[in-house]
Description:
By secondary structure, the chain is mainly alpha-helical. It contains three helices and no strands. It has helices at 6-28, 32-43, 56-102. The relative contact order is 0.13.
Amino acid sequence: MRQPRARTLIALLVMVIASGTVFFRLVEGWSWIDSYFFTVVTLSTVGYGNLVPATVLGKIGTTLFIITGLGIFAAAIQRFGYHAILKREKHTHDGQNQHDAQE
Length: 103
């Protein structure tokens, strides 16, 4: 299975965060910063509980948002984690090769 490109994941993540922010701003009437905060906290599964949707549409929208957004968020975290591991392995491998060449 082919991995999505990092740019694609970043674009999807930005789109999900932006749409969630706008949705909660319009439906729940929260401030822009509260809407953004709730979106990121929900996507990251932290869930502080200080903001909770009060409307029926907000609750239904939140469940749909979690189902779709969490998958994108998880894929982005996985992809960037994998990239960091590869970079570390390359750095470790290159350092070992330099060490071997000095001996």
